[in-house]
């Protein structure tokens, strides 16, 4: 009886001990869940807490992405319904085939991994589920400790309780790293295959999934391409073994050779976009810009921009051979809004410096990265219309006459004797003929006797030219022949004042900005103002579009003549052919072209008509016809 009693007591102790252990397990498990799960984000906050959103810069329509501003992590977010089924199948085949069957922790998978690792005598398989990988990546550090593993498992179970399987997959696809600061499947698709994730083939999907295991070691741009292809083939074969694809699809994917794109942060309209980015950073700060997911709608007309870039490359090659002119810059604006429709800062942003061993910005004939549109260059005769406009404001007109003759505007000790381009003098000429034919001697007389140096500079400033920062008499009478520096952006915008009959619209690069929720936080609201009398603006336009008045110097059928359209245009050349210009407009468009060399080296026999005129002509025709 005593033995039986002791057995009963032992069973009672064991029973209550088990109950106590279960109770303690439930108690401490609950405490652990509360403790470790307390900082798991709310469902609606998960993505915003764990993933930075890049800012995207678009053209004016929002249909063409020009650039994505990332921080240290380059990431583009997608919805799960944008991911093709074969990409999901590839992920499940490689990482977690029982994803839809377990609740975050796959005990069967863990057991299978242990057996494989024991059999292979190495770490050949892992037991982490997709949910565990997401938890580890998004919420935990990569330290290898027991407590971190416990925390990972608890948080994974809580993750599965709070979110659907599709939500977890979406989080995962947006979170996973691929090396090269690339995060998320959409950015990986764009970076490695130059396409959106929805366009990926089976083979490309398997390749990206293969990289997940070890992004650095399996990079397609390193020395381990064979290893990447081996892992890719494993994923494809695994998909077939799970009946995700059939044998024909498997063989096709295995045989397909991947075509990796040149790795770069995609950049369109580069000089324009980088200028916009700099403006945005000044306003919002670089960190805000790279994390808050803004949408920037610029003023760029994408098709016109592409046309301008193509023409610049083509004409630069022509000018290099014929005139020793290596660079071209182009600005096209809408005079009725001030919007920049196209900007080409150099002939080819992706080109090579010429010569290759030059010092950038100093001794280069061509430097691709310099945005000449924002650099000061002497405008030559392209500045004359502003001086004539000031003279017309003072009561003179196109019919006013002046004597074109050899004139010393200086002293005997310090002479200043300008010459006309052709070396001839014409005697009495009207201001219309003088401006249309770009005669130098009469133009200096207009500045000296009819317009005035300070007054002409003040008028140009009202037009938006900001580069005349010295005392007016520092520039002297050579100002009318281009003796001061201007920026192509500002000069093009200033010509727009003539196109609008005296109304100035500030230069505009951005039409609107939206936050990540689609709310408009900034919209362009340029306030126009009158800076010139309409009668004066019409007089300038009449002269610059008068082919008969221009013909004695340029010919009746020059590149500047448009028989069926009123197109006003002025060319410019600086001393020793260091700069060549063509500036022209209609009532709807202004096209400005600069040509030359970055290091100011002289071109060869390169007046503005010859070196900048052809580029201007093509783009003006394009603008008129469209």
Give the topology, please.
Elements: H1 2-37, H2 46-50, E1 55-58, E2 65-69, E3 74-75, H3 85-95, H4 107-120, H5 130-139, H6 146-162, H7 165-175, E4 182-183, H8 185-193, H9 202-212, H10 225-241, H11 247-255, H12 270-284, H13 286-291, E5 295-298, H14 302-323, E6 327-334, E7 339-344, E8 376-377, H15 384-393, E9 401-404, E10 427-430, H16 431-436, H17 440-451, H18 453-462, H19 472-475, E11 486-487, H20 488-499, E12 503-504, E13 510-514, E14 520-523, E15 529-530, H21 534-544, H22 547-554, E16 568-573, E17 579-585, E18 590-596, H23 608-611, H24 613-625
Parallel strand pairs: 1-5, 3-4
Antiparallel strand pairs: 1-2, 5-13, 6-7, 6-18, 8-11, 9-10, 12-15, 13-14, 16-17, 17-18
Helix pairs in contact: 1-6, 3-9, 3-10, 5-6, 5-7, 9-10, 10-11, 14-24, 15-17, 15-18, 15-21
Portion in helices: 40-55%
Estimate the global geometry from the Cα principal axes.
elongated
Ranges where pLDDT stays below 50 over 5 or more residues in a row are 40-45
Provide the CATH topology of the largest domain: Beta-lactamase
CATH class of the largest domain: Alpha Beta
Radius of gyration, CA atoms, in whole angstroms: 35 Å
Number of separate strands? 18
The order of strands across the largest sheet is 2-1-5-13-14
List keywords for this structure.
626 residues, alpha+beta, Penicillin binding protein transpeptidase fold, Beta-lactamase, 4 domains, five-stranded mixed β-sheet, 24 helices, 45% helix, 12% strand, elongated
